[in-house]
Amino acid sequence: MTPARSLLWVSAAFILLASLAPSHSNPRPIASAQHSSYAEIRAVYDRWKKAFEARDLDGIMALYAPGDAVVAYDIVPPLQYRGYAAYRQDYQSFLAQYVGAIRVEYRDLRILSSGDLGVINALERITGRLKSGERSDLWLRATSVMRKIDGKWLIVHDHISLPADLATGKAVFDLKP
Amino acid sequence: MTPARSLLWVSAAFILLASLAPSHSNPRPIASAQHSSYAEIRAVYDRWKKAFEARDLDGIMALYAPGDAVVAYDIVPPLQYRGYAAYRQDYQSFLAQYVGAIRVEYRDLRILSSGDLGVINALERITGRLKSGERSDLWLRATSVMRKIDGKWLIVHDHISLPADLATGKAVFDLKP
Predict the structure, then answer these.
(1) Which has the least CB within 10 A, A103, B80, B125, B136?
(2) Do A114 and B112 touch (CB under 8 A)?
(3) What is the chain B residue with the closest CA to A144?
(4) Longest CA–CA separation in chain A, Å
(5) Better pLDDT: A20 or B110
(6) This prediction's pTM
């Protein structure tokens, strides 16, 4: 389902909810809260895109929860990065491979949210020039989990990956959605 | 943070909440609901483990939301599996590579939950014998997102992966946590 169609379904569900509600209750604040959570969660990914494209490490890391809250499974080893400091180091190494701006594109992005928990998943294309001079163009899978902490959505879990070909043992770099 | 320590923190947070609450309100039902969500979400992974170890495809698929709700990023291509039927086919191909029982072990498992949304992430070790006769022993990263639909937690998103070595282009199969 495309994001546009998902949104349509969500909207339809709200209209249905509103029409079913007894007259003494008012479901609109709940619907509005949900709508605003979606927009806020989406805005985190938009801010991430902007910061990542500019290779702005501080801008990227401002979107992550501090201390031990972050557990990240990244494209590259080790299996996991535990905590803000370890993940920042990983980002720094990743960004250092590129020269100049990076371009990010999302496809099939989906947002789920309830209360103070949000999940966003998307296919993510990262294009840029490596230090070696080579042009890199990768489609990745990205899942991020966010918590609303003191009124602000912060990422507490990332899972970023490429599929692997189990027969050849190779990561598959040339897939397109 | 180990799951045991996380649980301790969660418990501490509940006790704090309870002590801060004004005397006319009763926060315990919320705390209990949260506790029971954690247990229910954990139970889905335990059922998944049992079904997967027995290579019971129907048992595995009973844990997934029907129709278009599931979007899965698996170890193997393509980039994504959209919908129950496509993901079932993927599971069938994966299980067909093995002979006899498979063994699953979780490490550093974490559960997040709010309302009708739950997230579980863990390192997952899958051990078994392949049809080729070779013994396979893999540590993977697993993230699953669940929705409580009609009182039942069902998985709507999976992200399962191995890290890749960007220098060699190989998926990294021999990592240990």
Answers:
(1) A103
(2) no
(3) B143
(4) 66
(5) B110
(6) 0.83
Residue A51's contacts (CB-CB under 8 Å, 6 or more residues apart) are A59, A60, A62, A63
- Alpha-carbon distance A119 to A72, whole Å? 14
Q: Give tens-digit pLDDT for A56-73.
A: 999 999 999 999 999 999
Distance CA A112, CA B117 (A): 8
- Say how many C-beta atoms besides its own lie within 10 A of residue A13's C-beta: 12
Output the pLDDT for position A5: 46
CA distance to partner chain A, nearest, from residue B170 (Å): 4
Q: How many CB atoms lie within 10 A of CB B32?
A: 11
CA distance A172 to chain B (A): 8
CB contact under 8 A, A74 and B110: no
Does A121 contact B156 at a Cβ distance shorter than 8 Å? Answer: no
Chain-centre distance for alpha carbon A77: 20
Question: What's the rounded Cα separation, in Å, for the pair B122 and B42?
Answer: 11
Domains of chain B, first to last? 3-171 (3.10.450.50)
Is the model's pLDDT at B67 over the cut of 70? yes
**Binning pLDDT at 50, 70 and 90, where does residue A33 land?**
confident
Q: What is the mean pLDDT of residues A27-33?
A: 61
d(CA B50, CA B101): 10
Question: A37 to each of A27, A85, B112, how far by Cα in Å?
Answer: 16, 27, 17
A101 to chain B nearest CA, in Å? 19
From the list A76, A115, A141, which residue is nearest B79 (CB)? Answer: A141
Lowest mean pLDDT among A26-30, B70-74, B114-118: A26-30
List beta partners, residue B125: B105, B139
